[in-house]
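Standup, Tuesday
Yesterday: got the pipeline producing structure tokens again.
Today: sanity-check two examples.
Blockers: none.

Example 1:
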Amino acid sequence: MLTRKSGDTRCQAQTVAHLMKVHLASQRRACAALSVERSTVRYRSRQSEDGNLRDAIKRVSKERRRFGHRRIHVMVRREGFEGNHKKLRRICRENLALVPTRLCMGCGSR
């Protein structure tokens, strides 16, 4: 029995596919045996591959350590990459490329 913590959707889909292939079970029976929803197995991600954009963001953020996502966006656009600011900010956040905010020394807050 697979639980929610035992793996992501790809792992669950691969497990169901293996069960279907080895034991010649239908998708419905394999999912029922593993307690996995069939929609999980059929799920296909709509997210596009943006490896080149990720590499450009990493490169710019390594060269310019203090740049935030707005300035990284400008630099990446200059290199010829297209993409909106929301996608770029999400990628920066995932890669931890964003610079942490500085704390005010005297006031205890930002």
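Example 2:
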Amino acid sequence: MTTFGEKTLASMVECDISLRGLTKLTHYDVGYLSRVANDLKIPSRPLAECLEKALGADGALLDLVPDRTAARRRTRTEAAGRHDEFRAPGSVELRIPPVQETDVTVIRDMLRALIASDRQFGGSHARAYAADYLHNVIQARLQNSTPSPVRRALFSVATEFGLRVAAMHLDAGHPDISKNLLGMAFAIAQESDDVTLAAWVLARRGEQEIYEAMLARHRGGNHAFRAHLDQAIAYTSGAAAMAVNAPPMARAFILTKQALSSSLKGDRAAALDALGVISAASEQAGGRDEPEWMEAYDWGHLRHEAARCYYHLGMGDQAVQAVEESLQLRRDIRPHAFSLGVQIIGLTQAKSVDIDRACALGHELIGAAAQLDSRRVNIRLGEALTALSPYRRVSAVRDVFEAAGFQPQDGGHG
């Protein structure tokens, strides 16, 4: 069921209204509106009426206003660790001073640590802490008056932090929360006045639809697969259009998501065309300053995404070559990256009936999955086992299934 916050964010996108613009229309504080839009605060009836008028929702928002008494009761039982619930009776809420450049530096250092943890151990471990940090530290500072040079940096790093926490929730199997956070990140990115960053958020939103499309296909849901894929193409195409004047490497990363959605659709020409633009962009790198969020990525990541495209298109040799280049180039050869690279090679080898090689890679994938608390990696493992299942009479394949904790049924190829 759609929540009040989800409908608010969707209406903001439809009306092309940012949080700052909504503040001017409703005269409510930007931080408060952000928390309402992300279902972190219960909206009052007067606020809902103001939002209805500002967004032209035609009664849709008023219908979604939750029962405040019941919602508060649920919140008190679920919100362990939230600052508001631990404030002593009669105490005065601390006022956050104006944000300084040093605050932005500390937040970015925290983001770097979270990225490293996410890639090494999966998103579930630090997810709760990261979500609290986003709410209590970062969002609380977005509503403060901030000097103009610092404001852009603050909203930029807040956007990046929101993207990371969204990825962690997706990794933990909470796609709806992830979508809410991506919506929040898009609204914040608009306040940073950085079109390239907003395009990156839109591309990541499309990437989540790609993930859900692949999951639906794995489960046999053809209708859901097509619906998610259509959404992925819409989001990634919009992101590509927004990024037409972006610095070369930033544009390349945004275009990888468009290439992925095209390859998953089977649109070979569109996917290869995008990959060609990406390759050309890498040759232009260095001529312009790249955005700060690009520091978390490198050419190895681009080859990693190209491998996924080639695999979707049935271009096994090119997929394997791209994966091997990625694993050599990436600065962060950690279990998360390694697991996808191994899966692509393993699936390709299974298709080419190099079963011994596919089984060896299957064992490596099982080892990587054991190091990560990650739903996405477990799904990759399931897809690899599905690719091997026609050969389950082969002793080496049965060993892989046993190592993964599955017992294959008799049948299949000998």
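Quick observation on example 2: The mean pLDDT is 78. Residues 14 and 190 are 14 Å apart (CA to CA).
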